[in-house]
Fold these 2 entries.
Entry 1:
Amino acid sequence: MLNERSERAEGLTHGAWFIVVAGALTCIGLMIVASGSASLQRPLLGSEFLKTTFGRQCVFVAAGTGVMMLTAKAVGPWLLASRDRLRAAAWIGVVAAVVSLVSVKIFGDVTRGSQRWLKFSLGGFDIGFQPSELAKPVLIGFLALFLTRDGVDARSLRKTFIPVLGMIFCGGLLIGLEDLGTAALTCLVACLMVWIGGCSYRHLIALGVVSVLGLAALIWFEPYRMDRLWAHQNLWNDPQGKGYQGVQSLLTLGSGGWWGRGLGAGVQKYGYLPESRTDFVFAVLCEELGFVGGAVVVALFIAFIWLGVGAMRTARTGVETLLAFGLTALIGFQALINIAVVTVWIPTTGIPLPFISAGGSNYLVFSAMVGMLAAIGTRSAMNEVAVPNEISEES
Amino acid sequence: MTQGTSRFAAVRRRTGVWVLTGLMALLLSTAGRLAYVLKTDGERLAGLAERQQFKRIVLPARRGSIFDDRGRMLAGTRRVPDAFVDARLLFNLIESEHPDEGAREAAFRDWCDQVAVRLNLPGAKVAELIRQHSASSYVVLKRELDESEAAAILNLDDAFSRAVGVTPASARVYPLGSSMAHVVGFVGREGRGLEGIERRFDEMLRGTDGERRTTCTVSRGSLDLRLDGARDPADGRHVVLTTDAEIQRIVEEQLASAVEKFSAESAVGVVMDPRTGDVLALACVPTYDPNEPAGSPTAARRNRAITDPIEPGSCFKPFVGALALQEGFVSSRESINCHHGQHFFGARRVRDTHPQGYLDLKGIIVHSSNIGIGTIATRMPKEAMERFVRSFGFGAPTGIELPGESGGIVKPSSMWSGYSTVSHSFGQELAVTPLQLVTALCAMVNGGELPAPRIVRGVLNADGSVVEWSEGMNVVRRVLREDVASLFGEEILPAVVEDVQEGNLKSQKYTSLGKTGTAQVPYPNRPGYEPGAYVGSFLGAGPVGDARLAVIVMVRKPNPSKGYYGRTVAGPAVKAILEQSLEYLGVPPDRESKVGVRLTDLGG
């Protein structure tokens, strides 16, 4: 506990550090997205600014920052203060997630073979909303609550494990219909939460086996996923076809080398590397800022997880502990998978890099998650040593 | 504030910390993975990326011109634009402009029609061309646009005009058309010289293309100019020939009229300056137009003056006679029995067309007696005869700056039969090129020095400054003593023209000398001669005493019923060439007095 105290003595609360790290990642992301939005056809800052990826990202970052601060300072503490409020919020979230996940299957736009987006237009500003992004934190929040119910033994098969399994299965299925990568990620984090939440190891092993089988089945029945796996195995056999994305990602990394070509000087973003502003933005970052830039980003994510560890260790309640763990793990795993995909370590899955990839709904959701983590961090700090930290926060 | 604490113990907090620590380790390992990729494969990947991001823009060098000795342009390069379409871009533009597919086809056709009108092409052809190469970003619609067409394309301004453009291209032009085609040669579609000077000096004429390197987007748009490897084009050098387009015209005219008059298969003519070895004209008839080389058969493009050796026949006698005299195998006054037109050398019977009794060396040459020259030859060892032949340059290429020169065929004397020395003496059993013959004649009329023939006067830089220039004679060797040379050049050979009444070849204005030759054409692929197939040749030079020009004309396969003797079929052409060319060169006539006298006589 002494560690946290000395950290806090630097002047920022533990919660505030979450926002600082997320903010740093966001700034790097904005820079790369701005660079990636450069076009030979029109100036970046022009009348159509809000139609460029960068312009849109600016709007999302502005909105996201608002959401983050609001969650950190007001909504988060207010919710955390009462388990009933948290429960109500979780239920609202569940209903919203299920409704949007179902409706995306019915009304959603098809992009590159996947039906993932609900599109809205807000006074001419198009917003694409990806329901799976919402479903991830909702499932985590719900699990955190469910695993810490009053008077229920977390080791119970009937009272805890079976219902939890059902939740994960339903959530995974709903998300998986739309986006297998996100589903796998969510299920993984959910299972870890069940473990951390105190379930019996015997049940957990059974769950692990079932999850792996389910995942295999999903891959087996959706041929394009097999293609992705195949492409990963034989990347260089078909560099212009199935291996194109992976090969271009590697070329982008190689093009940057250790020190990078300089911010804005990347070339692969000009049409060579698909998804260069979203799922593969990390490659563009490495092309422009080199291994050094990539390492800085990785270090920031590690710092973020470190903060999550701190929040978890000092959390006042079980639900906060589990929430801190789940949200941190979700962000951390997403970063891990994204970077592993970009460096062609694992097959391509459509997982954006938190805070850095351009994208509307996922940035807003991440902002809310960071706000929540900040709120948890701040609350635990207040609990630990009340008065001195109030003062340092003011200064 | 107390609701969660009751279940607090159940949460495996420490396990969670370990899991998150593991996650941090995994994240750290992605940085390791990145480093691993860069370390093990980084250079190859960077190279591959570089290769796809890199674009070379070639800045073509302008091909040098070819001039004759007086600066007349024989070959030049015109900058003419090509019109091209970026078909890929065009279809992309149409697609983005017209979301529904039905409208695209109509828009495409409309646009093709618009472009076609500006290029004076049928619209359907443009559409077809673009469709055929729909994946290409460079479809040439029309080459060698004129100015108005190029302007019309550049002024096109609609939604798709970005897809069409005009690039500078070069067209090789030969202002004199077929004249001197065999010397100048021509250039193929890709800008490589394929024949003649164009081929021999291709590298020099072509220059070095310049280059710009740019980084480009996936749609090949240039992002920035790279400084490494940027190079300006170095325009090609100009080549100046020793030939004179006017003398060439005269020769071509005479050859053509000889071919026509005697219904011959072809004719070859070469004019040289004996004082320097400069080739002033080199012509083959029939000829071809280098502007349209594909429009003529390959045979017409052969430069037969240097590529096709033939038996020289009687033209060869003076060279043997002169060296025999110089080396003492015969004296100039000696009378040799010519056996009245028929004599056996061993088992071989040799005949003369004009039977004679006793003749001296001059008589043998003037009357072209095979028996006479053969008798002199019997006195020589084989080796001496071979040496004579080779010392005049036969059997080896002259080294003229043209591609494909043959050295002729001279067998080594070790392979000769007992009769070979005799047959060599009147120009059989060996083959020589017309150029070799006229070069050898130069040695006879310039005082005895064998010149190296030259057809390239010099090379100029693109800006006109001189790189190389050569004048004067390059002497290969002295072949004849001056007294022997002047005996032949000023007495014996002039007599062939002056003293023989039959088939008068005397010019009204200039004294001249010469030697006739009539050879039979051997079968191309079996021993023996084609019946009725002759090559009539005439070697000539003038004026006597200070020869300015040496000429050979060979007429191949004239219709025998119209004449085939060298004197008949080639003699008049040589006479006309000498007369007209000397006049053109401003050489004062050396027979004017006679003409003058005659006019006075007439007047009186």
Entry 2:
Amino acid sequence: MKPRSLVSIDDLTTGEITKILSLAAEFEENPVQDILRGKVVATLFFEPSTRTRLSFESAVNKLGGKVIGFTDSASSSVTKGETLNDTIRTVNNYVDLIVMRHPIEGSARYASEISTVPVINAGDGANQHPTQTLLDLYSILKTQGTLDNLNICLVGDLKYGRTVHSLLMAMSRWKTSFNFVAPEELMMPDEYKLYLRNLGLDYYETPDLNEVINMADIIYMTRVQRERFSDPMEYEKVKNAYVLHDHMLSDTKPGMKILHPLPRVNEISTDVDANAKAYYFEQALNGVYTRQAIICTLLGLK
Amino acid sequence: MKNVNDPKQLLVSAIESGTVIDHIPASTLFKVIKILRLDRIQNQITFGTNLESKTDGKKAIIKIAGKFFEDDDINRIALVAPNAKLNIIRDYKVIEKRVVEVPDTINAIAKCMNPKCITNFEKVTTRFRVVSKKPVALKCLYCEKITDQERLEII
């Protein structure tokens, strides 16, 4: 029988998502357990992503499992020309579960077809990063008490941002209204807007964060990167328009929380960090509980 | 015995029994041959191309003696010859006419247009879900990107 893998958030039913989130809450109550004793997890990072890797390794270690793996392809047999097929066929003999990050899109689906143990996609190029989406959902649920009837404000690079696309698709399973705040060049692609329209969900687009900030239950910040602009002048014009400062938060909803997938560069001013509405570091901690829940679910241990 | 084929089709000799695939765009004849792997079978095959057609401009026709296709096989050519018509021949008579229809999934014949897709890096059989039949749009099961009619390439 094929093991159950997690490649794309669409692989999960809404019921399964809800189950993982409530399991994550259990792990938050009781994060150190012996569930994974005797289990070995591989973290195969064909490109570096320190934060994601450490989060997975922390999740496994707290549950008594062991981790083996590599941190970038330079320290793996890829440099000798080994195919992904051969790497997976070899490594799945050593471990009970594979966590994989790879720059090539679709590599995780392919690995999951080959592997005899579950594969968790920790990012395949610009395609999917489902554990990020699940930890975002967990953070939203935990801070708002529900996933229903929320106003989610997505800010920054909405055109190329894998994280915001996955979050949009996931949140569209509940009754969510969206505000999209982005410069002209980085607006939400039409396919996602069409998707929401077909579901009868509301969205509103604006280049001005101040226009919608006070409606938000969640502000999800992403970075506007210089290299995304064809015209450097355009970047210079907009770069400061998508930076969140503490003074902008004074009239926002009391329960509003600010999320960010991290790493942050300058899109959230450090004066926001002390505000009770800043939630991005707690969000990173939630990633550990969520990943504990995902690993145990795929291994059938909970 | 009276032949039911029109005289133009007789530019390519009639077959006693087998399949005639008509109304193939002349420009995609060789893609059809490739998709159906006609270059690898031993049956007698005759084909004509750049034939005048009242409806299609330049068309091509293939006659394969002693060969009958399953729907799943023949529908694969709908990607490149959406208006193709099949005549099933027995004893020099057309006993059945069929049209092709784009199937719901396309495996192993189309190339994913995303240069960063795993199928363009390793020996992975391409697999697509058909998200639109006219015009054709294919969603890669690996990278989840859409390959549309314009960028469709047959492997």
